[in-house]
Amino acid sequence: CSNSISQNVIVNTCATIATLNLTAFLEGFYSGNNTMRANIYDLGISTDPAETDTVTVNLWAPINLSNSSPDYSAKTVLHTDGTATLQCPAAVNGNSLYIAVKHRNHVETWSKLPVTFSSNTGYNFTDNLQKAYGDGVNPPMSSVAGGKFAFYGGDVNQDGTVDGSDANDIEIGANNFNYGYNTADANGDGETGGQDANIVEINANLFLFYARPY
After folding, report:
1. 15 falls in which pLDDT band (50, 70, 90)?
2. For residue 16, what are the CA distances in angstroms to 8, 13, 21, 72, 119?
3. Secondary structure element (H or E) that encloses residue 77, with its range
4. Beta strands at 120-124 and 17-23: parallel, antiparallel or unpaired
5. Is 167 left (phi over 0), alpha (psi -120 to 50) or beta?
6. DSSP secondary structure letters along 13-29
7. Predicted model pTM
8. Average of per-residue pLDDT values in the chain
9. Number of other residues whose CB lies within 10 A of the CB of residue 127
């Protein structure tokens, strides 16, 4: 014999993620006309001609700035037009968090103020100098062609400043004829040499140091 029964089920959908749409330029990789070199594509690391490099995005709650690690951290791909998309936990919705972006040879840069997150949040560093947190000494970002702004290049050793130690890393790489994906390639052309050293020299003269809200 057989039998059957039916039951109506109501499913309430809810957001399981929050999306951050980020826009940022890297000074050393910037080639003008609102675009950057496709570094990882040119070097055969990516198959997408619109991909520049990866960056790490850290989200910090203002009350947790003294912690040793951010509230949330993830790596994402930065495209040649400066755009990147990051999937965050839905728990960030409704919270105000600083956005801090780190790249392998550029100065770590933070949003000027905490950003209130929703299920879909956008933040554009490139269109206004005041979008980045500053130290009150130097402009918080470098002015580049097209009226845009970019993260300062040349922090090769990621110690938070651009100075002689970064220049030394580039000199060593140039003497070894390094080519490919490496931190001393400050302009993203795949070769370590004089153009990379020029970026470091210019920014070292500014006595740059990363600016954080703590």
Report:
1. low
2. 24, 9, 17, 15, 9
3. strand 72-79
4. parallel
5. alpha
6. ----EEEEEEE--BTTT
7. 0.91
8. 94
9. 11
Q: How confident is the model at residue 10 (pLDDT cuts 50, 70, 90)?
A: confident
> Is-contact 88 166, C-beta < 8 A?
no
Taking residues 27-42, report their average pLDDT.
Answer: 97
CB 141 within 8 Å of CB 26: no
Calpha distance 53→36 (Å, rounded): 10
14: confidence class by pLDDT, cuts 50, 70, 90:
low
Tokens of 128: 């206004």
Can you tell me the distance from the alpha carbon of 72 to that of 57, in angstroms, rounded to the nearest whole number? 8
Tell me how far apart the alpha carbons of residues 47 and 151 are, in angstroms, rounded to a whole number.
Answer: 25
| CA 47/CA 49 separation, integer angstroms | 6
**Buried b vs exposed e over 88-126: b needs ≥16 C-beta within 10 Å?**
beeebbebebbbbbbbbbbbbbbbbebbebeeebebebb
- For 50, phi then psi, to 5°, come to -100, 10
Distances (CA, A) of 60 to 71, 95, 99, 116, 203: 5, 10, 7, 12, 27
pLDDT attached to residue 36? 98
